[in-house]
Amino acid sequence: MAGIKDVAAAAGVSVATVSRVLNAHPSVSEDARSRVLAAVDELGYRPNAVARSLRTAQTRTLGLIISDVMNPYFTELARSVEEEARALGYSVIIGNADESPKLQDDHVRTLLDRRIDGLLVSPTDGGSPQLLDAARAGTPTVFVDRWIPGVDVPVVRADGSAAVRDLVAHLHGLGHRRLAIIAGPAATTTGSERVDAFRAALGAYGLELPEEYVGQGDFQAESGRRVTEAFLALPEPPEVVFAADNLMALGALDAIRARGLRIPGDIALAAFDDIPWFVHTDPPVTAIAQPTRELGRAAVRALTAVIEGRRARSVTLPARLVVRRSCGEPGAPPGTAPPARPDQSPTPRPRPRSNP
Amino acid sequence: MAGIKDVAAAAGVSVATVSRVLNAHPSVSEDARSRVLAAVDELGYRPNAVARSLRTAQTRTLGLIISDVMNPYFTELARSVEEEARALGYSVIIGNADESPKLQDDHVRTLLDRRIDGLLVSPTDGGSPQLLDAARAGTPTVFVDRWIPGVDVPVVRADGSAAVRDLVAHLHGLGHRRLAIIAGPAATTTGSERVDAFRAALGAYGLELPEEYVGQGDFQAESGRRVTEAFLALPEPPEVVFAADNLMALGALDAIRARGLRIPGDIALAAFDDIPWFVHTDPPVTAIAQPTRELGRAAVRALTAVIEGRRARSVTLPARLVVRRSCGEPGAPPGTAPPARPDQSPTPRPRPRSNP
DNA sequence: GGGTTCCGTGGAATCGATTACACGGAGGAT
DNA sequence: ATCCTCCGTGTAATCGATTCCACGGAACCC
Question: What is the biggest distance separating any 2 CA atoms in chain A, rounded to whole angstroms?
């Protein structure tokens, strides 16, 4: 493959001049520039990014570590991260930690060896050693979705508390009083925050969240099924099951169907994380939608800011409630599922965004 | 960050010796080795992969270009590719072509600039210029899932024809005679092959595949919906809709529901590509499952073989039919759907699962 | 007209590793 | 004892770019 020397020779200039042309350095004569460009074109020359990286000490590569690639939420996040990064001239190496701190550390190490310019992480746990080291050692790092308290790193995430309040209001308005939640791992921020928000929202309606209505899940479908089965076996089963992520909601759906119960007739179901599939289930699932695309973009922008030495602030974007049919139908159809449906209902709570 | 020179200094040896220790070169004294190792440990030294790549002309990085990351099939493929690659000491840079040849070329160019060791591609079309150039120029390349006829590159894919025959047998046994297919883009091999296999299988039962029973989709959900609506508007609508990929099946599901029809009572549905979600829909969807994990692993192994100069052969793995309930319940269930579920029901439709 | 400034350019150092080659010393063969 | 062969090690070249510095010549200023 042709190198910069070949181009220099072909154009009758030095390698320095070729480099200057390629990097749009001002002091190059028009004549030299055109000869270089012609040579580049003729030889089909493409600069070697590896050599460039060695010299400039930047790879224009970002590392993205997510906890579960098979989860549609993270897939979408990864997609938007890659898109935004590409727009900014960065490539992305994705590492799938599979909810394992060990694997996560493995990925951090590899990425650091490859001298990525920055690290985007949705941490699996409270702080694996490599990750903490990297962050403290000054590797540009940004947390996305989940974060680790006490680590001074910008966080890009969605705040679901308002949406959870809207959800509880919606459920309460439908007459539901016994609400249960399938929680995520307590070691993750998203795991605990969602339970807290739910409990707080219930409190505003004078409702309790008893211990037996808090099931411990692990963000995987199977745990949703298990927890839901336990709920249904209770002497007084809940009227609503709220799953703290989409996969657990799926498990819940299965468990409910396996019991021969109908949704929302016999029991209502709602989920945190909205995904395209929830439109296609029967019934469509009411969910709290995170602005996933925007999260990905904001995360990349924050990270590149840190990389370029600008100080980046944390970003918190609001999640919003998307009412479908899995919790029951109010007097006037509230849904927002399929494409263009006029949402304005004459009844109270025209758009679920306020808090009581 | 500490470099190899620092290690050499700390251990009182030359950089050559340090390098030899790190690369397990035989001729290093036990004494020197231990001193180097100690120094490495103390300084927390990690070799700079960029410098190493420049010198050795290999990056131990693979490029993976897929046509749609949001499609669960490709997500799973990407996951298994990354896993196998990691096991072999490679990192993976994923590019999402989004079914656009232009974007695909863009990714090829970037990856080549980064001097990846090999390219794994599921081509979006019949041959975008950059991709063809790369393959012909000798960049180690392997096609996965889809391929480009006439290009001499190993192909790792699943053969669905036997499974399609099984499916048609299954449908025929259930009494269905009017079978329609939602096809993928003709420019992709998977798009045309599946239609061909379907037509051939029908032929074996003396059935035709009339023109109006072949809908043109694009592997996206919306096209599945559109095509299915057209099918249902036909004077004589099909009894079965077979979608050539999972997303289009989803669209079909929607269209059928929107018409108020029941599956499989009013119309049957089957899909190519099995995904976890098909277990959770109502009813669970009969599908043709590709050995996705194995495809990913085989693709990586083939690619690394080419990289290391060994000659790699193409691999074709069989897909298999997974019978669920979206086509009707046969007298004796042939299927192999969920783990260990005694599916044999004496009476039809034992559990309340239909919708009014 | 002479000195200063600026511009375009090339030579060479540099990034951090790997590795060919040379070299000194130990051990074996004769 | 002499020579040859290895073995362990260090010196320096190398990979392909970027960039500091120096230099020659043109333009500009009094």
Answer: 88
| Strands A118-121 and A155-159, bridge-based pairing | unpaired
The answer to whether residue A89 sits within a structural domain is: yes
Q: Which chain A residues have a beta carbon less than 8 Å from that of B254?
A: 279-280
B281 touches chain A (CB under 8 A): yes
Q: For residues A151 and A133, what is the distance between their CA atoms, to the nearest angstrom?
A: 11
Cα–Cα distances in Å, from B236 out to B179, B199, B212, B259? 11, 19, 10, 15
CA of B6 to C1' of C7 (A): 41
B341: contact with A, CB 8 A cutoff: no
pLDDT in tens, B100-120: 999 999 999 999 999 999 999
Could you report the per-residue pLDDT of A241-296, keeping only the tens digit for each?
A: 999 999 999 999 999 999 999 999 999 999 999 998 888 888 899 999 999 999 99
Alpha-carbon span A18 to A271, nearest angstrom: 57
Q: Is B70 in the A-facing interface, judged by CB distances under 8 Å?
A: yes
Smallest CA–CA distance, residue A285 to chain B, in Å, is: 12
- B152: buried, middle or exposed (CB in 10 Å: 19+, 13-18, 0-12)? exposed
Residue A160: name the closest of A304, A346, A322 by CA.
A322
Residue B249's CATH number:
3.40.50.2300
DSSP secondary structure string, A161-226?
HHHHHHHHHHHHHTT---EEEEE--TTSHHHHHHHHHHHHHHHHTT----GGGEEE--SSHHHHHH
Residue B307 lies in a domain: yes
DSSP summary character for residue B311: P
B224 and B246 belong to one structural domain = yes
